[in-house]
Amino acid sequence: MTLNKQQYIKKRAELITKHSIQDNTFSTLKAQVKTDDLTSSEYWTWRIDQYLYGQYPEFQPIYNAYTQGKTFQQIYNLPAENLEFETTVPKKLPSLPQGYFTDNLEGNPHRGDNFVFNNKVFITYQGHLTDPYVAIFDLQEHSWEGPYKAAESTLSKGGRKIDSHGRPIIEQDSKGHIHIVYGGHGGEREDGLNPLSIDTPHAGGRMLHVMSEKPNDITTFVQVNDISPFASYTKSYTMANGDIYLFTRAGTHKSPWVYYKMKGGEQHFQAPVIITWPTPQTSNPINVDTFYINPLKISDTEIAISYLWHECNFNEVHDKETYSRINAYYMKLDTTSDTFYNAQNEQLSLPITLTSANKQTLAFDSTLRDETPFSTVPLIMDTPALAYEARTKEYREWRMVALQNGEWQHSLPLPGTQKRTVRDLEDRDIKQVQRLESIDHDTAVVIYKNKQGHTVFATAKKISESQQEWKVNKTYLDLANTRIEMDSVKDNKANTLAVILNVKSGDAQRLYLWHDGQFFGNH
Fold this sequence. Notes:
The protein has 523 residues and is mainly beta. It has helices at residues 5-20, 25-30, 38-55, 60-67, 72-75, 354-360; strands at 113-117, 120-126, 132-138, 143-149, 169-172, 178-182, 208-212, 221-223, 232-238, 244-249, 257-262, 273-274, 279-280, 287-297, 302-313, 326-334, 339-341, 362-364, 372-378, 385-391, 396-404, 407-412, 421-423, 432-438, 443-449, 455-464, 469-479, 483-490, 496-505, 508-515, 518-519. The termini are far apart. The mean pLDDT is 92.
């Protein structure tokens, strides 16, 4: 079926009239058009089309029949994207200690992702111009393979600013092939409208999926076309039965969160399952209630999800005054049946909206408090719990919400921190412990600020079991004006085998792998 412009405009207008009876979002979006401004009119036509396309799927075959074979510029008379941002590479970078395994990382990449198989650590990370890179470190031989560039990203090409949203994840299927999903922050204009969202792409960058040609091999990858190009953010877990779950946002800010499932024995993801759905506010539809979610595998069969309410808007105003992150919520996915439950084990119906979230999964109501949960992460405990980064004008610190005696309790100290003390090599109390990760019963790695304000990475020994007292026994990095972030490398029994550090000083930024008391560099 094809439609000419007159037929398309007529059918489109009929649908908008039909749904406007109960949905005032259309009139709100149309009211944003600046009088006698063709660009403004075309822009909001595009935004209204995307809202109609995602919210009311009956519009999709109509739109597709009219736009088939047309480019974005042929559909909307809008100027090309402004991609004239220039990334200036300094001629001289601040020096970083030897022992890294990556080239210099531009922008703000994360520590990447990893898994362990046959005593080898498979690592992927966002490298030069946000392309995904992959390497293998042999824990027994202490040797490296790679890094290799696994694929091409569109995220920061063509003059775009370096963007960390497309951070890659890495998993291994039951046949031994390596899967990397990477590069997404809303898709490209030429990808068309997003069937899973009410929000148009405004950042760019396609989410892509590649698979190694051979099992346990990282030299050559092939593309797999089973992920929405509009997706943004990545988090994945392999369950005990070999099923792989990939969690992502289906587009830009005003988009649902979904999961993709790759069943054990298969090598393609199934169609996405919509977890949450964004809802324009009835009284003021320019604002949209949506979420930020964070999943964590908490057992062989369960994935817990903590999440925030994010109040967004169609005007794309994301400054510090409007970048709302509110409340904290908790639910879990039983992967044996792909069913969601709240903390009280009541089954949940999908998709989750703000109304249903507040009714069934609210763990911490911050609406009447100064304490704003800026980010959350589930905790593995005997009771449902999550950590949240509490932010006010006076402080920023991590706290806990936990279900105790059937009631949610908030503003609790994180497990193991209430009575924990850490002393430095001179036996002085460390006031600013940023991260402490146990390696075994008696040893931990720790990141802290010392008296000089330097960031320190060290190991510590437990000196008191009952009081959680630790004492630093060796420092590995002691750096001024430097940020250090840490991720653990764990085996399938959750034992910490190594840690990966992201060390950043000015425009210099590298990844390090620490194992058996030393860094193993690859340069």
